[in-house]
Recover the amino acids of this structure.
């Protein structure tokens, strides 16, 4: 080997070694680290009109999406109405379709509430189109398909197809090319919810999540699911812990629900839900632990059973593959709504129905007010069940300034309230 060749060889070795050493070792890595845009998409076709969505092999432009939602509301006024959850940072609408038959009879007010939402990570758009097609399927099938008719008559179904429109349409309203995980403020919305277990302080809450929390507070959802992409696995709570550290109290129920979802989908395609493990479902923290996630927030604060559905290995699949994904997911999506009739009475915390203390604001800053009469002496507990001293700054005002951020339980006899200290 010549001196020049040997020198070149040594230079290459040094360069490779330096590059290897420059890579930091990460413990508990985020399974889907943030990426700038949807570069995994090979073929994206956009629908610029509602008519072009008829074959469901395109992604809608933002204008087409809004037009679709408005058209359903106008076409099926007896079955659905269109809600606006709020607005994104850039003023795009966060829409939700409420589907429910026989809404003018007293029994309708007692129907359990179900919630689907998708694409809080803007580049994970398979669920976006799946939820649009689910709306269309339920409305068209009402009166023709007994299963759909029964669900629409007996469940108040809410579907939010796109919860991060700024991330999805980062490149403009006419294309999802260039979609990104974050919202317009470059914040990951799935790391931006109040953490039930106080593992990490919450930074400034984003408008999309503030609006979503307000919407959740308006309703009493019993079962929900949040759709993502980047893998194919049913992910049930908790996300903040491994199952060894703290299993969800309804763990076996979750396993049964996930198994039914995956088994149904595999009747139509055996190849899916296999990239994380062979069974196709996993407890959140056993996959990877995250703080400030939506799944744990909804379960803990709203007494609602919510899971995360990772439904496509690519975050942004080829638009021509969208009908194939619908083929193997359609029945699982519909059957999951029916699981609302088997939901355990609580999501792991005390049932707050008739025994709730009336407190505000919640989440709270330094002061918390208790409205009305309450049963007995007020007692305050942290998430580990330890009683804390209560400092009052008025007859019905509790001073929280000495507490760290996180979740607390306020009791008065049989009455309880879950308090979030910001």
């Amino acid at each position: 080997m010549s001196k020049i060749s040997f020198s070149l060889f040594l230079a290459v070795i040094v360069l490779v070694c330096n590059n290897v050493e420059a890579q930091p070792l990460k413990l508990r890595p985020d399974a889907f680290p943030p990426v700038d845009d949807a570069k995994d998409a090979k073929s994206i076709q956009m629908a610029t009109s509602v008519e072009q969505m008829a074959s469901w092999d395109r992604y809608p432009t933002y204008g087409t999406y809004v037009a679709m939602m408005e058209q359903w509301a106008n076409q099926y006024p007896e079955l659905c109405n269109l809600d606006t959850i709020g607005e994104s940072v850039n003023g795009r609408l966060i829409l939700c379709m409420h589907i429910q038959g026989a809404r003018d009879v007293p029994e309708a007010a007692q129907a359990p509430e179900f919630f689907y939402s998708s694409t809080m990570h803007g580049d994970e758009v398979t669920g976006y189109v799946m939820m649009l097609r689910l709306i269309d399927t339920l409305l068209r099938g009402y009166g023709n398909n007994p299963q759909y008719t029964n669900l629409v008559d007996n469940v108040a179904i809410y579907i939010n197809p796109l919860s991060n429109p700024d991330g999805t349409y980062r490149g403009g309203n006419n294309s999802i090319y260039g979609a990104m995980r974050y919202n317009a403020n470059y914040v990951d919305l799935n790391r931006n919810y109040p953490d039930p277990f106080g593992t990490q302080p919450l930074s400034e809450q984003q408008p999309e999540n503030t609006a979503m929390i307000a919407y959740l507070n308006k309703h009493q959802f019993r079962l929900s699911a949040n759709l993502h992409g980047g893998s194919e696995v049913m992910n049930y709570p908790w996300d903040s812990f491994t199952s060894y550290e703290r299993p969800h109290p309804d763990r076996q129920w979750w396993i049964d629900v996930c198994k039914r979802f995956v088994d149904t989908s595999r009747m139509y395609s055996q190849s899916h839900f296999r990239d994380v493990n062979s069974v196709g479902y996993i407890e959140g923290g056993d996959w990877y632990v995250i703080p400030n996630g939506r799944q744990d927030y909804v379960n803990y604060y709203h007494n609602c059973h919510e899971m995360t559905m990772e439904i496509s290995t690519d975050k942004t699949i080829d638009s021509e593959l969208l009908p194939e994904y619908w083929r193997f997911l359609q029945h699982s999506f519909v059957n999951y709504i029916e699981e609302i009739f088997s939901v355990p009475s609580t999501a792991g915390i005390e049932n707050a129905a008739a025994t709730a203390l009336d407190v505000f604001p919640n989440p709270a800053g330094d002061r918390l007010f208790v409205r009305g009469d309450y049963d007995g002496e007020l007692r305050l507990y942290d998430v580990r069940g330890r009683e804390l001293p209560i400092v009052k700054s008025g007859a019905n005002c509790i001073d929280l300034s000495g507490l760290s951020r996180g979740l607390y339980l306020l009791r008065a006899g049989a009455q309880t309230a879950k308090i979030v200290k910001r």
About this structure: The chain has a mean pLDDT of 85. Residues 46-342 form a domain with the Aminopeptidase fold (CATH 3.40.630.10). The chain is about 30% helix and 20% strand.
